Amino acid sequence: MPNSAILVNISEHLKKLGQSIKNIITDKHFNGLAIIDIEEWRPTYDSNWSSKRVYQEESVKLVLKDKKFLNKTEAINLAKLQFDKAAFRFFYATLKMCKLLRPRAFWGFYGFPTCNENAQNRNWSFCFPEISNKMISFLKYADVIYPSPYIVPGQNYTVKSFFVREVLKETNRIVEEIMRLGYGKKLIYVYNKIEVDPFVAKPKNIEFFDPYYLCIVYDNCVLHNVDGVIVWSTSKNMKERCHYIKDYVDHIFGPHIKFLQLYSQYLRNKISFNHKRNMLNRNLMSINKCNRILTLKNINKWCHTNFYGPNCFYSKLISSGIYNQLNS
């Protein structure tokens, strides 16, 4: 926990961090992307929910250890203040060390803003602006914002599309707010995938991104004028997965990216990306463009390949809503 001197020795952390940077990025003049990946805990008390709730609980215990006279509400409020303040120090000191040792690199933190696809109980509010606003305190010192609107198993096509757009929208809001505060424009590099779940037990059952997923993810990035995309996958079972990935990249993903390069040039001539009023136009273009390809004919065509996992046809009919239309 960042708010416990017992559990976190910041001096030792920075010493080890410095050694790691020198070992991993051996070139002192490195000028590429450099990502700080901290996933075990999140940098605000309120964002440590679910499996990370232990950090909230331990923070409250830490407060009550010294201040037993506080009631539960008072202890929680103080724990929030202490945790958030300590987390800022940890993140800021980490970033400062990184930029000191490799000043030409484009440093930033993986996975911000904090958003969550499972938003049924939050009126489909996928991101948390109040949490983002707190994180601006250290994100304003980064060079790049690295959001990760990953498509994961579970929700239907409509929810996934909305989720990706909301992550990109919140990322742009953060960048604009940082600019308003006078810290300059931050680059946006988006982490994306090409597999819905790369951890499946049998590589032949991998569900790669179908053309609709490619549209709502990669085309959306172009429409929101991000500076670049980082394609991530796990190294697990890579030897067994490699030829499946190559086949998909050669026949589906690669050609789509080549098309997007041309599409990007077309959009630059069609849209002024510097005006807020065009955000709505971008979202409408994305929705219309992607929805046009989500047809029964196309789904049938996609599922006659080996790229989209078992039960392809039925699962995509359900996810798209076409199944209900056919049976209404």
Annotation keywords:
328 residues; mainly alpha; TIM Barrel; three-stranded parallel β-sheet
Describe it for me?
The chain has 328 residues and is mainly alpha-helical. The chain has a domain at 11-41 and 96-292: Aldolase class I (TIM Barrel), CATH 3.20.20. Helices cover 54% and strands 6% of the residues. The chain contains 11 helices and 5 strands; from the N terminus they run H-E-H-H-E-H-E-H-E-H-E-H-H-H-H-H. A 3-stranded parallel beta sheet has the order 3-4-5, with helices on one face. It is globular, with a radius of gyration of 22 Å. The relative contact order is 0.09.
Tell me what portion of residues adopts beta-strand conformation: 5-15%
Query: Please, what is the CATH homologous superfamily of the domain at 11-41 and 96-292?
Result: Aldolase class I
Order of helices and strands: HEHHEHEHEHEHHHHH
Find the CATH topology of the domain at 11-41 and 96-292: TIM Barrel
Largest sheet: 3 strands, parallel
User: At CATH's second level, what is the architecture of the domain at 11-41 and 96-292?
Assistant: Alpha-Beta Barrel
What separation lies between the terminal Cα atoms?
53 Å
Organism: Strongyloides papillosus (Intestinal threadworm)
Pfam families: Glyco_hydro_56
GO molecular function: hyalurononglucosaminidase activity
EC number: 3.2.1.35
